[in-house]
């Protein structure tokens, strides 16, 4: 059984068909990349999966359960977390605090226990800290050491992206949706994040779906590549086969004049 299955999804905004009859399966332990020209519907697809938008038609199945209609917080509790194309962090909080916040939905202690700092709450708080440090350790000294207690607004853009990925991991997710994870990174940083995403799967046990424009990253880590154009799936398969597909070439470069 696939971890995630999309069945004939449709989504329109007014007269604009943003997603049209898209079906897709993602198996546990896979890294699947979604590519396509700007405006192809890639981020809209992520918004549908995570409950930001609701599909007009079609089904979203996660671990065998239909999750259409769930709000984003409930989708997160099911085990799906995402990053955003435009960063959404608490910039005046520290790196550590940003990665602690998404764990609060798992707290069993109530607000009174938090105020009184009861032993049960303190134990839960310590467990949250351990989880946060474990997720941040994937990024090594980029986020650990002195940066751990720095406010996010002083970080480089690349380190803010790393912080957002660590925050997504800390939700307890099984499936990570990464929206342009290497955006704003130089070639050295892109190579590093490529290796980290592979480690997410190999060491962290995550299943990953990513939207990405850098083809070297896509080609290096993807088990499968899905191509969208004008909201429709036009190709799916191995990276080399997909990038040589005439429909994909036309989508990126336009139709050649005869």
TrEMBL record:
Q: Which domain of life is it from?
A: Bacteria
One GO BP: L-alanine transport
Q: SUPFAM superfamilies from the entry?
A: P-loop containing nucleoside triphosphate hydrolases
- Name all ABC transporter domain ranges: 4-255
Its GO CC terms are: plasma membrane
| Keyword Transport among record annotations | yes
Q: Say yes or no: keyword Nucleotide-binding present.
A: yes
The cross-references to Pfam families, in alphabetical order and at most eight, read: ABC_tran, BCA_ABC_TP_C
Q: Which UniProt keywords apply?
A: ATP-binding, Nucleotide-binding, Transport
PROSITE patterns in the cross-refs: ABC_TRANSPORTER_2
Q: Which GO terms describe its molecular function?
A: ATP binding; ATP hydrolysis activity; L-isoleucine transmembrane transporter activity; L-phenylalanine transmembrane transporter activity; L-valine transmembrane transporter activity
Q: Enumerate the InterPro entries for this protein.
A: AAA+_ATPase, ABC_AA/LPS_Transport, ABC_transporter-like_ATP-bd, BCA_ABC_TP_C, P-loop_NTPase
PANTHER family linked to this entry? AMINO ACID ABC TRANSPORTER ATP-BINDING PROTEIN, CONSERVED COMPONENT OF ABC TRANSPORTER FOR NATURAL AMINO ACIDS-RELATED
Q: What is this protein called?
A: Amino acid/amide ABC transporter ATP-binding protein 1, HAAT family
User: Which organism does this sequence originate in?
Assistant: Oceanithermus profundus (strain DSM 14977 / NBRC 100410 / VKM B-2274 / 506)
- Organism lineage string: Bacteria, Thermotogati, Deinococcota, Deinococci, Thermales
């Amino acid at each position: 059984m696939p971890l995630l299955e999309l069945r004939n999804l449709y989504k329109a905004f007014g007269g604009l068909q943003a997603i049209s009859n898209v079906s897709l399966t993602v198996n546990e332990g896979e890294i699947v990349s979604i590519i396509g020209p700007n405006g192809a519907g890639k981020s809209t697809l992520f918004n549908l999966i995570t409950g930001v938008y609701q599909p007009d038609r079609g089904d979203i199945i996660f671990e065998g359960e239909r999750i259409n209609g769930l709000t984003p917080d409930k989708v997160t509790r099911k085990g799906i977390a995402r990053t955003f194309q435009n960063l959404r962090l608490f910039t005046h909080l520290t790196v550590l605090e940003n990665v602690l916040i998404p764990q609060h939905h798992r707290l069993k202690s109530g607000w009174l226990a938090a105020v009184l700092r009861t032993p049960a709450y303190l134990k839960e708080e310590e467990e949250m800290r351990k989880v946060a440090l474990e997720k941040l350790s994937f990024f090594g000294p980029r986020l650990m050491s002195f940066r751990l207690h720095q406010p996010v607004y002083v970080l480089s853009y690349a380190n803010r992206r790393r912080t957002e990925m660590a925050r997504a991991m800390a939700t307890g997710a099984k499936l990570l949706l990464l929206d342009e994870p290497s955006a704003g990174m130089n070639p050295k940083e892109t190579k590093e994040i490529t290796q980290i995403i592979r480690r997410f799967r190999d060491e962290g046990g995550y299943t990953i779906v990513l939207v990405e424009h850098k083809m070297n990253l896509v080609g290096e880590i993807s088990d499968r590549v899905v191509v969208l154009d004008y909201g429709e799936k036009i190709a799916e398969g191995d990276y080399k086969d997909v990038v040589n597909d005439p429909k994909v070439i036309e989508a990126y470069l336009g139709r050649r004049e005869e």
